[in-house]
Every structure is written in structure tokens, then in C-alpha cells.
Amino acid sequence: MKQLLALLGLLCFSMQAQSPELALTITNIQSVKGTIEIGVFNTHDNYLKEGAAYKNYSIVVTDNSETIIIKDLPKGEYAISMYHDKNSDDKCNKNFLGIPKEAFGFSNNIVPKFSAPSYEDCKFVLNDNEKMDIKLTAF
Fold first, then answer.
1. How far apart are CA 68 and CA 57, in angstroms?
2. What tens digit of pLDDT does each residue of 92-133 get?
């Protein structure tokens, strides 16, 4: 029994070691208050659908640039979206046209012009440790 537990422990450790680290730096934070809400999507089917992110992360804003180290994403293809929830109401506030009133950002630093970017525009492959910068944009 002890051998089985040791083997399972070793297997779990080895699986964790295979997950790469993503160092995500968010820049152009205009206000040092609230949180940055991050959604990580792993398919185009659920991309940008509310409540459908593969993983969610939240960072309390303490500076004009914030970094989060994500260690729990297995190797694969992803797209990231985020917004600065300045008023901490847990939603991306939008105007009557549906345009975000709070700053937002996407992987690959895609800046949308007339509609939200596609999964294809924002996707990236995470196979090894990676650093990524995302600049927040506000309209």
C-alpha cells in the first residue's frame, strides 16, 4: 500500500512538473484600484462566453503594471481576455452600444476595431515556459 501511495505521489509530481509556467504581465493600468479579471479559453466554441472560461484568475491592482505567474495550465492552445474591474462589481461595464467602459486586453495584444476579436486572432500555444505582455486598452 505504501508503495502504491509513493508511486501515485511521484506520478502527480511528475505531471505537475510538465505544466509550463506562463508569466503574464499586464501594462497600461490607468488606475490603481479594483482588480484585473482574466479569462483563459481553450476552444473557439466557448471563447468570450460569460462563465465559459477554462480558467479564471483575478489580480488585485497595486501598481500600473501587474504580473501573474500561471502554473496550472497544461500544454496546449489558449486565448486570453481580461478587463480592469475598477469598481469591483465583478462585471465588465459597457455603454449602451455594448462597448466596454473599463479597460480590457487580449492575448497577442489584439485591439478590436468594430467587434470583439476572434479566438483565432488571440490564440497562442503554450508548450514551454513563456512570458507574455498584454497592454490594456480603453475607449
1. 9
2. 999 998 889 999 999 999 999 888 999 999 999 999 999 999
